Amino acid sequence: MTNPSPDMIERMPTREGVLRAAGKMAQLLPQTPLLALDLPDGGIVWCKAETLQPVGAFKIRGAWHRLTDLSEDERARGVVAVSSGNHAQGVAWAARRLGIAATIVMPNDAPQVKLAATRTLGAQIVLYDRPGGEDRDSVATQLVGQSGATLVHAYGDPWVIEGQGSAGIELEAQMECLAEGGPTRVVTPCGGGGLTAGLALALPDAEIVPVEPEGWDDVARSLASGTIQRVARDAPRTACDALQTPATFPINFAVMSGRGLEGLSVTEAEVRAAQRYAFSKLRLVVEPGGAAGLAALLAGKVAADGRTVVILSGGNVDPATFAAIIAET
Amino acid sequence: MTNPSPDMIERMPTREGVLRAAGKMAQLLPQTPLLALDLPDGGIVWCKAETLQPVGAFKIRGAWHRLTDLSEDERARGVVAVSSGNHAQGVAWAARRLGIAATIVMPNDAPQVKLAATRTLGAQIVLYDRPGGEDRDSVATQLVGQSGATLVHAYGDPWVIEGQGSAGIELEAQMECLAEGGPTRVVTPCGGGGLTAGLALALPDAEIVPVEPEGWDDVARSLASGTIQRVARDAPRTACDALQTPATFPINFAVMSGRGLEGLSVTEAEVRAAQRYAFSKLRLVVEPGGAAGLAALLAGKVAADGRTVVILSGGNVDPATFAAIIAET
What we know:
The structure is a homodimer of 329-residue chains. Chain A has 329 residues and is an alpha/beta fold. Chain A has two domains: 17-57 and 158-327, Rossmann fold, CATH 3.40.50.1100; 61-152, 3-Layer(aba) Sandwich (Rossmann fold), CATH 3.40.50.1100. In chain A, 43% of the residues lie in helices and 15% in strands. Chain A has a six-stranded mixed beta sheet with strand order 1-2-10-7-8-9, with helices on both faces. The radius of gyration of chain A is 18 Å and the shape is globular. The A-B interface holds A 30, 32-36, 49, 51-52, 54, 56, 113, 174, 177-178, 276, 279-280, 282-286, 315-316, 319-320, 322-324, 326-327 and B 30, 32-36, 49, 51-52, 54, 56, 113, 174, 177-178, 276, 279-280, 282-286, 315-316, 319-320, 322-324, 326-327.
């Protein structure tokens, strides 16, 4: 079996896998920078600018680790992914580089910039009706059944988790160099928990803090209750399209709860304030979902102790949307 | 004499000085990333993201090299700089770090974001009436006469030129690592010619292409005519505040013309298109003047041969200004 699902998990992700993924990434791409950011209270936080990856998000890590581990036979049958855009671009980028056919199932309300970029990378796009409640996983399952392609899940996949965790290996080495010691705390945007679980494996000695939009804090509630919780059907609208996942998967939950993580949530206004802060202080374009971790820090919901790192996880945002956010005062 | 002027040059900048400045920068700050950017014609250009320096511009380099070479006595008397904002922040940043008092002469129409940032860095600001035609150099000369402070000129200073050139040493090493060979061509925004002259010293084997806004192409005209030309009194308005310099200085001109450089100019619309391209493809905030080099490449005024580097020199822009630019289609 190569297609993990909540019911059929072929293996658990491991720290060894994370280290192997980090080795692959070191061969593939330069490290994204770790930038020092002064906070309004006089403190400092270290920002891992995953917005500067070739596809504008960390998702390239998990996709690369997954696709490079496929057999020749699996590569020939292609891959299928489901994504609002960043995972889509990560898989399309890796597939093009490896000569693998990629089909991406995307919501019809995804940001135009993400749809266009995924097409430019040569992937075939199949739209599903997210506002209308169509089930994306059933669309993907049907595609996989037709073609024998491998489903590369956006977060519920051991390779994907390990790949995302390579960001943790990188930032630890950068902290050792820049701040003479590893991170004590890593604050990260959290959707389905792929990056969060990867960081938890990568950094056993650091506190990992997943941050979700208000009303989409299923991971925080799952960790607090001890069982996987789903987002409510009447969840509020959020600008954080990258974090709109209905529920985490068992392998992600097992890793996160095994480390005893606790989650936080941030408001839409706090997210916008963080985007403005990153614009003016770091000159970085950060999408709403990518700024959730920084939002928690700026709102004082988690402390920066001088050895705290925040992941700026993505920067793919429509120009008009971003213009409206930074012009707001 | 520690205050160079067009008539009194104490020494010429040297490649040895550039290498010494690069050594200091390597001790001070991590390298800014060199990012691969796909061009619309299918080519690639390497972008040196100086927007990610702590003050959002390369100016920190020249200021650091200059201030760290001051004697104890000179440090005690403080420094004076004249700048629309980026050099101001570079000098203020370096001065604060070294415990030196800094006074900055800034135009009263400088971007608010640059005025505020310079104040935050602890510098004293003296405004002059740029739209009214007040001579900034006479304001600075008066301040220097009163205090015995050292004038750190924004470009007409051998240390400043050498310091800016450290960006060239850095990007050459990064190109060797990422592209297995040095740059053949470096395209750079050009105001007074500090960065351009520094790059010319740093990279004797690469073609250096300075780019200015239309109507502010005094360096291009100077290089073409063989003598220093000034910007016309009725020069058109430009959004590139960082490149609004009336004329280059003899030491800059000597280095640039000695290498046989030729300059280019770009329109305001080409600059805005480049800012939008950097926003969507690199997720970087680039100010108008910082995008002039990229504008020349996107407009087809200079070719990218696969080993071409463009400097994204600064990213300090008022939010409302940037919002209007990226929302434009």
